[in-house]
Amino acid sequence: MPELPEVETSRRGIEPHIINTRVARVIVRNRSLRWPVSKTVDRKLLGETITSVTRRAKYLLINTDGGSAILHLGMSGSVFIVDRDTPAGVHDHVDIDFDSGKTMRFRDPRRFGSLHWSKTPLQHKLLKSLGPEPLADDFDTAYLWEKSRGRRVSVKQFIMNAQVVVGVGNIYANEALYLACINPRRAAGRIALQRYELLVAAIKDVLANAIKAGGTTLRDFYGGDGEAGYFQQQLEAYGREGEPCRRCDAPITAIVQGQRSTYYCRQCQT
DNA sequence: AAATATACCTGACTGC
DNA sequence: TGCAGTCAGGTATATT
Q1: Is it true that domain A141-265 has CATH number 1.10.8.50?
Q2: What is the value of pTM for the model shown?
Q3: Which residue of the set A44, A55, A58, A147 is catalytic?
C-alpha cells in the first residue's frame, strides 16, 4: 500500500516523463473515487503544460501554470507511465495523455484515492492543516515533544495523526516505535524529551530507508505498477506476531489500537 | 478541544 | 471448487 516512501517513489518515477509536456487528452473512466472526480479537473488540465510534480504528505501535486491536480493514491492506488492507447484494465480510472505519446495512468482497485483541482493546492481544504513533513528540518525533537504535552492519546496514534506529522502510516509507526524502544501504548504526553529524540530519529530513519528501497521499484517502474513489497524484508516488528524480537528474542505481540494492528516487543519496548 | 468511532472499497486469505 | 466471512488500511467526518 502506498505510504509516503511509495508516493515519493511514484513522484520521482513520473516527473521526468511528463515535465514540460502538454496535456492532449484526459480520460476519466470512473468518477466515483473517494470523492466524485469533478469534470473541472479534466477541463482545467487539458492543454496545460506540466511544470513539476511535487509531493505534500501523501498527495501528489501535478503542477501547471494554471493550477494543480491533487492526486491521492489511497490504499491501493498507483500511477505509472504507459504508451498511449495501451488497453486499460478494470481499475484504470484516469488517463492523462500527453503530446509526447505517453500516458500517465491512475489505477486504484479499492477506489480510496482522490483527484482534485486547485489553483493554490497548499491552501486546499485537504492540505491546509497538515503537520510538517517528517523528513524536513522543522520536524524535530522540540516540536514533537511540545506538541505531545498534555496529550493522553497513545504515542502510536499520536504519530499517525496527520496534524502532528504527515506520512507516518501504520507500518512505519510500528517500525519507528520498535527502533526507538517505546511502547506504542504509552500516552504521548508522558514520554520524556530524550525519548522523543530517539523517536524522531527513528521516524526519519525508517522513512528515508524505505525511500531508498523504493529506488529498487523505481528501476522497473516504467510499465510496472510500483506496488512491489520492496520494504518487506526489512521489517522488524510489523507482521511478525509470535516471531522472536531481533533484539531480545521475546515473541512479538500483536494488539489493536484505534482499529489498527500494532506489533511490538513487550520486553524491550517500554 | 481531544479522543474515539465510522465510512468508504475490493483483493487476498481463511474455513467450511 | 466454490462460497461466505474476515481482514487490511488512509483519512475525512461524525459522534462522544
Answers
A1: yes
A2: 0.91
A3: A58
